[in-house]
Amino acid sequence: MSDTGDAAMGRSAHAIRKRSVTIAGHRTSVSLEQAFWDALRVVADARGRSVAALIAEIDLAQGRDRANLSSALRVFVLEQARAGMLDSAAHLPPQAGEEATRRS
């Protein structure tokens, strides 16, 4: 997977990052906010696979209900968050205002 995002955008959780991935032998690009890339990394690490492999699995699971891949990835991350999969992701960068809350 390669990162083709603009370096000037920084690592803001809201910045859109465009990355290239290979799915079933075909290269495609996916644009997601950095927070979603971070969450996908947490899930992929927990499952012992690469982010690219996780994206390929999510794409395959869509089957005939193929939606926009970026949308499918966001929904997947939301489902993982609801299932508590991301609760132990203490190493994710805090969102604005979260740092003060964690220290309280």
List the main descriptive attributes of the protein structure presented here.
Ribbon-helix-helix fold; disordered C terminus; 4 helices
Helix/strand-derived category reads: alpha+beta
CATH fold node name: Ribbon-helix-helix fold
Give, in spatial order, the strands making up the sheet with the most strands.
Answer: 1-2-3
Total helices: the number is: 4
Q: Kindly, what is the distance between the CA atoms of the first and last residues, rounded to a whole number of angstroms?
A: 38 Å
Residue ranges: pLDDT <50 for 5 or more in a row?
Answer: 4-9, 90-104
What is the count of structural domains?
A: 1
Number of strands: 3
Report the sheet with the most strands, covering strand number, pairing sense and barrel closure: 3 strands, antiparallel
SSE string: EEEHHHH
Structure description:
The relative contact order is 0.15. This protein has helices spanning 34-47, 51-62, 69-82, 98-103, and strands spanning 2-3, 16-23, 26-33. It has one domain: protein bp1543 (Ribbon-helix-helix fold), CATH 1.10.3990. Strands 1-2-3 form a three-stranded antiparallel β-sheet. It has 104 residues and is α+β, with helices and mostly antiparallel strands. It is globular.
